[in-house]
Amino acid sequence: MRNPMKNKRVTPGPGQESVWDYPRPPRVEASPATIEVRFGGQVIVRTTRAVRVLETSHPPVYYLPLDDFAPGVLVPVEGTTHCEFKGAASYFDVIAGRARNARGAWTYPTPVPGYGELSTRAAIYPSQMDSCTVDGETVQAQEGDFYGGWITRSIVGPFKGGAGTWGW
Questions:
Q1: 3-class SS at 116?
Q2: 112 CB contacts (<8 Å, ≥6 apart)?
Q3: Cα 54–chain centre separation
Q4: pTM greater than 0.90
Q5: Alpha-carbon gap, residue 37 to 131, rounded angstroms
Q6: pLDDT of 48-100, one tens digit each?
Q7: Kind of pairing, strands 140-141 and 51-54?
Q8: In the chain, which end has fewer C-beta atoms inside a 10 angstrom radius, N or C?
Q9: Distance from C-alpha of 23 to C-alpha of 41, rounded to nearest angstrom
Q10: For 123-134, what is the mean pLDDT?
Q11: What is the largest CA-CA distance in the chain?
Q12: How far is CA 25 from the centre of its chain?
């Protein structure tokens, strides 16, 4: 059966990427961008050492070095989920000042082979933060919050994650 959404693929313009050109299984690649996340009215992480996970139909998910987060911001919590590609994910509550976001970040402490770079990094749900930026551009969160993708002007879809997209 043909994928009806892929037929509606947005053609990328100069300097853009289509999420329909990303691989499956996903690929991890280094990002030279400056990433900044604000929560609770403060910068909780600023880094140039992020990696992106790129997967067909999904905006990139940025994984940020654990060492680059402000002290005390990431608090490990119980419970895991499983990704068919990356393995078991562990979660953090994100805390800054009086603000607390339950399970707002995750990591793969012992990922499957091919995803080792994720073991020392955490991803953040951008919709649950005050703001997330890539090279100064404010990120739009991927609809649905299941995947945690970061949408910028350089990424075109359509994107999986919103209502009615689970069966793509």
A1: helix
A2: 85, 86, 87
A3: 9
A4: yes
A5: 6
A6: 999 999 999 999 999 999 999 999 999 999 999 999 999 999 999 999 999 99
A7: unpaired
A8: N
A9: 36
A10: 97
A11: 51
A12: 16
**C-alpha span between 124 and 157 (Å, rounded):** 21
How confident is the model over 26-60, as pLDDT tens digits? 999 999 999 999 999 999 999 999 999 999 999 99
Measured CA to CA, the distance from residue 40 to residue 44 in angstroms comes to 9
Instruction: Please compute Rg for the chain using Cα positions.
Output: 16
Helix, strand, or coil here: 139? Answer: coil
Which residues have a Cβ under 8 Å from the Cβ of 56 and sit 6 or more positions away? 19, 20, 22, 23, 24
Instruction: Please report which confidence band the pLDDT of residue 125 belongs to, taking 50, 70 and 90 as the band edges.
Output: very high
Length of the chain: 168
Asked whether residue 1 carries a pLDDT value surpassing 50, the answer given is no
